[in-house]
Structure formats: C-alpha cells, structure tokens
Write a structure and sequence with these properties.
This protein has 105 residues and is mainly alpha-helical. It has one domain. 74% of the residues lie in helices and 0% in strands. It starts with a helix and ends with a helix.
Length: 105
C-alpha cells in the first residue's frame, strides 16, 4: 500500500469517529437530558450524514480516488460522506459494546 492510501483510510476512520462523537455525545446527549428533544433521536443518522458530508467536503476527501486514474469529484466526495456517516454508526456500536463489556466486569 502506498502512503497516500494509508493516509486516506486513516483520515476516513478519524472522520467517522469525529462524526460519531459530535452527533452522539452532543446531540444525542442533549436529547437524553431534555425531554423536548427526545423526538429527534430517530433522526440522528441523518444528522450524522449531514456532519459527515460537511467534513468530507471541507477536507475534499474522495475514497474513490484509490481507483487508478480517478480524480476527485463532487460525487465521489458525497459518496465518501455516506461511507463516513455509516462508519460513525459502526464506531458507535463498537464503543457501546466496549462500554457494556467494561461495565459488566
């Protein structure tokens, strides 16, 4: 693997973690604390998508550029946002599992 590919994958994981942290710990926490915000809980994946899209467009990250002869495009960046937002869900599931495992001990 070349250095560019490793940095791209590492940055994608970091953005997935950042998206999960921003959405779950800021918005999700507020929805748990304030009763009026509880109805937004089902929409957290869409908030994560919006945050992820904003981050990947800001950093101009396109995971499709790992394919040879593919340039960075807005469509590739948008698709990367979907990948990062779903990655945020996986990060959340993993952290919830670890938290449950550590609390259960």
């Amino acid at each position: 693997m070349n250095d560019y590919l490793l940095r791209l994958i590492a940055l994608s994981f970091a953005l997935a973690w950042l998206t999960e942290a921003a959405v779950e710990y800021l918005i999700g926490y507020l929805a748990d604390v304030f009763e009026k915000l509880k109805p937004i809980k089902p929409f957290l994946p869409y908030v994560a998508l919006a945050v992820a899209e904003g981050l990947v467009f800001y950093y101009q990250i396109d995971l499709l550029t790992v394919i040879p002869d593919v340039n960075i495009t807005p469509i590739g960046i948008a698709l990367t946002g979907f990948i990062v937002s779903r990655g945020a869900g996986f990060v959340n599931d993993f952290l919830t599992f670890i938290k449950g495992y550590l609390v259960g001990k």
